[in-house]
Amino acid sequence: MQELAVNEIEQVSGGAANWGEAGAGAAFVGLSIAIVSGPIGWVGLGAAAGFAYFGGTLIGSGLSGNDVWQLDAR
Q1: pTM of this prediction?
Q2: Which one of 2, 6, 14, 48 has the largest count of C-beta atoms within 10 Å of its C-beta?
């Protein structure tokens, strides 16, 4: 049996993706969908749009391996 190198293991497991950050972004997007599914006013619509934007950037940041919001530096 042949052993895998570290870069081969990273390719199989998703590379340099930060799955915790992507999962948090998906939770924010889910929260925005839950907010919009009920009768809301302008404030609720603005909050849902903010959660969707922040969640989308977290998903993109986590999957691309970039640290857009510099969460890893804290």
Answers
A1: 0.74
A2: 48
